[in-house]
């Protein structure tokens, strides 16, 4: 072939990949602290840039116009979506980006199969095919669940465990055949079986647990990328993929722990019947409801108010109004804090992002362990669009699906005010006894509208 | 590079991966997940390598699809993470544009 020899010697290539790998490690490190998080992410992006320049300079690549074209298409699709997506819809976007990464790893492995010289490489290839496909399809289902294109409740049908078993057997069988024969046709079958497995894996997971699954699939994609690095003999892919696989595994466990669940309980809970399925029927029991003016008086003359924001606040896009209410109260001398449950919103840490977007300084955002003792001294706990995260059933009802989940002790406050759309139960579908307690008042309506009414009433005090 | 060297690197990377995120505050779980998600978009390097060696039309087509998907993962991942983190400001920086999208 008449091609120019590569610009970079192999040593330089290896060194530049090392630089990129170090950037990725620094990125993850930086993302672990609020101060350096943004810089960490930029270091990661810089590492990726170095790696891309390196790959173009280090080997004799053909089809360059096509490759650049494809990159432009990919970036032109992703960047505007990433820039414009509403913060409330961010979890499903992360799921989507994760899925396409897994899909890319699977395709790369498929194309490398004819070049695999030994059985070990083919093992790495079938691993990438399966895990990449599971990640792609599983992320697709999580996207559909979060976007509410399908039900957010666990989907279970009688034959599911059997079907899952059959799929697993077929997957292992065809994978073994691919390792033995190197047949590309069978590899496509492995890919297809992986897609089915991904769908079946995520279907039985309930809505509230979906974020944990995103994190788990993120780790999966990392492993698939690492395996494809082994196949291509590319150290950077191995290091980056393994880093993501390992950190993603830890992160998944941290998130699950914050919900008081085990990862296996989340993935396979529905199989045991102890699912997160609950009632969606509104209760008929009597509650004490109130009007915005009374709530404003309660808040305006309190000394200490703790706001408990939940997903309902985010859906109603009420985070800015909540921030304004907090400011209005503070200017009256009321001490205001936001109590953030680790899984408030739809994804662990999601609520922090939403409130940060509304310019609530992160010093006012208190983590659960920090704030739980404070509820006893609080005059009012204002629960906005949250339900399960303050549900005492997590402590008192052993049979409940959320039993064992750490909760915010909003019930300890002298008064509890719920801003709720209706009496329908929360995401997990469980009745909340706190709503019927004597110190609890309810204000029905859209979270943002209710907050706006309370805000103007507070200003009028 | 031989298998044992690659294995060594892999095992060390596992420990580094465990170590760097072991003490992350729950405030940052979402951006960290998203950032890690962007990092595995580096599969783009693999996709480019495969596309650059393709001689057959079908192989090239599949490889280019992989390039599109991987670029979306990489670019989208870093952009959305940056957008999230842009919003994490301390008390000092919060101010004039507070509630700019809110009701008034």
TrEMBL record, chain B:
The UniProt GO MF terms for this protein read: kinase activity; NADP binding; proton-translocating NAD(P)+ transhydrogenase activity
| Localization of this protein | Cell inner membrane
- Where does the NAD(P) transhydrogenase alpha subunit C-terminal domain start and stop, copy by copy? 7-89
Which membrane topology describes this protein? Multi-pass membrane protein
The alphabetical list of record keywords is:
Cell inner membrane, Cell membrane, Kinase, Membrane, NAD, NADP, Transferase, Translocase, Transmembrane, Transmembrane helix
This protein's record includes keyword Transit peptide? no
Which Pfam families does the UniProt record give?
A: PNTB_4TM (PF12769)
Q: Which GO terms describe its biological process?
A: NADPH regeneration
Protein name listed in UniProt: proton-translocating NAD(P)(+) transhydrogenase
């Amino acid at each position: 072939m008449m091609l120019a020899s590569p610009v970079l010697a192999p040593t330089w290539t290896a060194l530049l990949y090392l630089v990129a790998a170090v950037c990725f490690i620094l990125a993850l490190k930086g993302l672990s602290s609020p101060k350096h998080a943004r810089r960490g992410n930029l270091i990661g992006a810089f590492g990726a840039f170095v790696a891309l320049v390196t790959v173009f300079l280090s080997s004799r690549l053909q089809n360059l116009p096509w490759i650049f074209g494809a990159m432009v298409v990919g970036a032109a699709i992703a960047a505007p979506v990433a820039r414009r997506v509403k913060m409330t819809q961010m979890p499903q976007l992360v799921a989507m980006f994760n899925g396409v990464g897994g899909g890319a790893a699977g395709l790369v492995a498929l194309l490398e199969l004819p070049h695999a010289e030994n059985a070990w490489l083919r093992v790495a290839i079938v691993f990438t095919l399966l895990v990449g496909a599971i990640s792609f399809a599983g992320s697709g289902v999580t996207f559909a669940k979060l976007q509410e294109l399908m039900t957010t409740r666990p989907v279970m049908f009688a034959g599911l465990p059997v079907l899952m078993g059959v799929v697993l057997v077929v997957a292992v069988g065809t994978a073994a055949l691919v390792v033995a024969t190197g047949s590309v046709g069978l590899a496509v079958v492995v890919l297809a079986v992986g897609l089915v497995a991904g769908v079946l894996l995520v279907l039985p997971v309930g809505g509230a647990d979906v974020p944990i699954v995103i994190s788990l699939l993120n780790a999966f994609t990392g492993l698939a990328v690492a395996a494809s690095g082994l196949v291509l003999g590319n150290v950077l892919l191995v290091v980056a993929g393994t880093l993501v696989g390992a950190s993603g595994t830890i992160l998944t466990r941290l998130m699950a722990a914050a919900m008081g669940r085990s990862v296996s309980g989340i993935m396979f809970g529905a199989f045991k019947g102890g699912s997160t399925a609950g009632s969606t029927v509104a209760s008929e029991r009597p509650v004490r409801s109130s009007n915005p003016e009374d709530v404003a008086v309660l808040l305006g003359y309190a000394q200490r108010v703790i706001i408990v924001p939940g997903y309902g606040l985010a859906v109603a896009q009420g985070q800015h109004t909540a921030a304004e209410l907090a400011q209005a109260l503070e200017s009256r001398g009321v001490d205001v804090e936001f109590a953030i449950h680790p899984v408030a919103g739809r994804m662990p840490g999601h609520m922090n992002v939403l409130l940060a977007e509304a310019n609530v300084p992160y010093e006012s955002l208190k983590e659960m362990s920090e704030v739980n003792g404070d509820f006893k001294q609080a005059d009012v706990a204002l629960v906005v669009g949250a339900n399960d995260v303050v549900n005492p059933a997590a402590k008192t009802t052993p049979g409940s699906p959320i039993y064992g989940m750490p909760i915010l002790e909003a019930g300890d406050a002298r008064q509890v005010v719920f801003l709720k759309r209706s009496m329908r139960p929360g995401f997990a579908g469980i009745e909340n006894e706190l709503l019927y307690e004597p110190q609890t008042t309810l204000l029905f309506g859209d979270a943002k509208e209710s907050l706006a009414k309370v805000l103007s009433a507070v200003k009028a005090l | 590079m031989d298998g044992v060297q690659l294995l060594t690197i892999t095992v060390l990377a596992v420990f580094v991966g465990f170590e760097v995120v072991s003490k992350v505050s729950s405030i940052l779980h979402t951006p960290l997940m998203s950032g890690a998600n962007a990092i595995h978009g580096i599969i783009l390097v693999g996709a480019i390598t495969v596309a650059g060696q393709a001689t057959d039309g079908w192989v090239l087509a599949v490889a280019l699809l992989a390039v599109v998907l991987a670029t979306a993962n990489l670019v989208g991942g870093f952009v959305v993470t940056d957008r999230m983190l842009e919003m994490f400001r301390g008390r000092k920086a919060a101010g004039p544009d507070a509630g700019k999208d809110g009701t008034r």
